[in-house]
Amino acid sequence: MNDIYETPKAELVEEGLQPDDKRKRFYKISGIGLGTFFGSIVVGGYLLAQNYKQLGQHAEAKKSLIYSVLGLVAIFAVGWFVDMYVTIPDIVYSIAQVVIIIQIAKAHQGKALARHLASNGRFYSNWRAFGISLIFMAVLIAIIVAAIYGVAYLGY
């Protein structure tokens, strides 16, 4: 017989991750930082976007890609203008990108990633993030070389 005063038995699920999400894989914050260091802020934005897609937040994934490309353009612009007046080592720009992307990842995905880890969820290896950064750098170098040869061919 059912006791009408008994508390219903229901599994409470926090917002962001569902019970079947243990099968999903995410990039760790350290992997996002590693990818950003070796591949630029665009790789960090891509890895954030992949995590957002796993969380079902497709609009946020698109925003992270757009903002990371805009961030790269801003870093190039700042580097170009600042270099006119002051010489700053290039590592400063890399470190700034890593710090920014790690803080963004902690603020926007930190709780969801911590819940996923607590539920014994799976994460991609940091080597995968490193590999993605190398692929991005190879593509970027190919584009730059093609642009240089294109400009040289046109005689500018």
Topology summary:
Layout: E1 25-26, H1 29-39, H2 41-54, H3 58-85, H4 90-118, E2 122-123, H5 126-154
Parallel strand pairs: 1-2
Summary of the model, kept short:
By secondary structure, the protein is mainly alpha-helical. The chain has helices spanning 29-39, 41-54, 58-85, 90-118, 126-154, and strands spanning 25-26, 122-123. The longest helix is centred in the middle third of the chain and has 29 residues, at 90-118.
Describe the structure.
- The chain is mainly α and 156 residues long.
- It has one domain.
- The chain contains five helices and two strands, in the order βααααβα.
- It has helices spanning 29-39, 41-54, 58-85, 90-118, 126-154; strands at 25-26, 122-123.
- It has a two-stranded parallel ribbon with strand order 1-2.
- α1 packs antiparallel against α4, α2 packs antiparallel against α3 (58-85) and α2 runs parallel beside α4 (90-118).
- The longest helix is centred in the middle third of the chain and has 29 residues, at 90-118.
- The chain is elongated, with a radius of gyration of 21 Å.
- The mean pLDDT is 88.
Q: Give me the count of strands.
A: 2
Q: Tell me the distance between the termini.
A: 88 Å
State which percent range the strand residues make up: under 5%
Give a quick account of the main beta sheet: strands, pairing sense, barrel closure: 2 strands, parallel
Order of helices and strands: EHHHHEH
Number of helices: 5
- Measured on Cα atoms, how large is the radius of gyration? 21 Å
The pLDDT mean sits at 88
- Find the structural class using helix and strand composition: mainly alpha
The geometry reads as: elongated
Low-confidence stretches: none
- List the strand order in the largest sheet: 1-2
